[in-house]
């Protein structure tokens, strides 16, 4: 009895000691590509925090001109300054994009097309999770509207530029949660039934289906597309759920940092020779799927 009590008392201590090792095990997958990106142009949505911010930072580090497509310009500008200072790359630009409003998406695309000759990398990263029931400006359920439909429209509007800039890539940040997703055509806007957790899953499944169909339609165009699961990452994604916030806090020692979470998106955006895997889904798995084995090495 005393032994069990002692063990229970010491458990947090052992976990604390083992945390770096456990985290290393869980956060496998690092983009080992040495590709540099001078002259390349990239757009990252939701780049003012979390995985998007780290993805943008790494692309800037490699010399790309990076557009931070953010709904909050002030937050975006702060991050742009930070990235410029850290990387020495001044070509980090902030543009307003609210994926919950098709007017904003169209305005972003119009200005971008007028401003830029090329687009080589589009990373559809922004996302919301477990929001209370709400709708976008155009009446779409928020998860489906922002996570899928917003990015769907954005990609469509930028597609000609991507084709002109080929070889170019579109990376859609999905999630392992897609496994629980279903496309309920009779309840797409969640009006008949709504569950915040499942709504997220449905939208993440839509990301993967979109990737597969886009890949099929773009065959031979020089534009390739990939979907990714970034792993479980300590970010602001859980902001709408006090329970998830608490869980993230409790397990924060074991889950990925945003920098680790950015690795799979980066891998798909820059690794040479990935074109044959057009349309595939990548996840930073401990046991690398065949698609991951070359460039995503275990253990960050
Ligand atoms: N974290 C994880 O464990 C995890 C796991 C699987 C998949 N993912 C996926 O990874 C992606 C990035 O998430 P994260 O973990 O980095 O979360 P995050 O820290 O919450 O970042 C989400 C980003 O999306 C932006 N965003 C939200 N709504 C938007 C809108 N209407 N228009 C434009 N931007 C909007 C946010 O902007 P504001 O700051 O202005 O709100 C923020 O920049 C998401 O697609 C998420 O589904 C994350």
From TrEMBL:
Signal peptide: 1-19
Family: Belongs to the short-chain dehydrogenases/reductases (SDR) family.
Protein name per its UniProtKB record: Retinol dehydrogenase 11
Gene that encodes the chain: RDH11
TM annotation in the entry: none
Alphabetical UniProt keywords: Oxidoreductase, Signal
């Amino acid at each position: 009895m005393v032994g069990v009590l002692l063990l229970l008392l010491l458990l947090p201590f052992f976990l604390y000691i083992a945390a770096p090792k456990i985290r290393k095990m869980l956060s496998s997958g690092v983009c080992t590509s040495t590709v540099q990106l001078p002259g390349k142009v990239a757009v990252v949505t939701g780049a003012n925090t979390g995985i998007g911010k780290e993805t943008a930072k790494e692309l800037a580090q490699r010399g790309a001109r990076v557009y931070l497509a953010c709904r909050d310009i002030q937050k975006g500008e702060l991050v742009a300054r930070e990235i410029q200072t850290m990387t020495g790359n001044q070509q980090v630009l902030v543009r307003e994009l609210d994926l919950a409003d098709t007017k904003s998406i169209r305005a972003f695309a119009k200005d971008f097309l007028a401003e830029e000759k090329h687009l080589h990398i589009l990373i559809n990263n922004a996302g919301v999770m477990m929001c209370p029931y709400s709708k976008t400006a155009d009446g779409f359920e928020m998860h489906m509207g922002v996570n899928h439909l917003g990015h769907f429209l954005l990609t469509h509007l930028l597609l000609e530029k991507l084709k002109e800039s080929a070889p170019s890539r579109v990376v859609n940040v999905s999630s392992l949660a897609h496994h629980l997703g279903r496309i309920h055509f009779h309840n797409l806007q969640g009006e008949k039934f709504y569950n915040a957790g499942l709504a997220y899953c449905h939208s993440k499944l839509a990301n993967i289906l979109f990737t597969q169909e886009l890949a099929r339609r773009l065959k031979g165009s020089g534009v390739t597309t990939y979907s990714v699961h970034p792993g479980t990452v300590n970010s602001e994604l859980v902001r709408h759920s006090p329970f998830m916030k608490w869980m993230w806090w409790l397990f924060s020692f074991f889950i990925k940092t945003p920098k680790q979470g950015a690795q799979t998106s980066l891998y798909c955006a820059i690794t040479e020779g990935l074109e044959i895997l057009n349309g595939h889904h990548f996840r930073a798995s401990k046991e690398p799927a065949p698609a991951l084995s070359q460039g995503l090495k275990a253990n960050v």
